[in-house]
Amino acid sequence: MRRPGLTRVHFATQFRRATGLCPHDYLLRRRIEHAPQLLLSSEHNVFDVALSRGFRSQAHFTTVFKRFVGETPYY
To answer: What's the rounded Cα separation, in Å, for the pair 68 and 33?
Structure first.
């Protein structure tokens, strides 16, 4: 039985047209947006920020942060 609505592929295509990013990259960018302000606060270390922004590891957070910000979170 076919469910009504968009297929995953159709949704992803329409989402990319509207935002310029695939849904996964959009979510990653949103997670990273507030991270630099948190990192500048002396009470937050990189691991804490990674977890608070929804990343399961500091390594993945660092990789994604560098991809979107252009530098590692250790600057």
So the answer is: 9
pLDDT tens figures, 6-28? 799 999 999 999 999 999 999 99
Q: How many CB atoms lie within 10 A of CB 69?
A: 15
Q: What is this structure's pTM?
A: 0.79
> Coil, strand, or helix at residue 8?
helix
Domains and CATH numbers, the chain: 21-69 (1.10.10.60)
With tokens 């002396």, the residue in question is: 42
Looking from the CA of 58 toward its CB, the CA atoms found within 13 Å total 10
Q: Which residues of 13-31 are buried (b: 16+ CB within 10 A; e: fewer)?
A: eebeeeeeeeeeeeebeeb
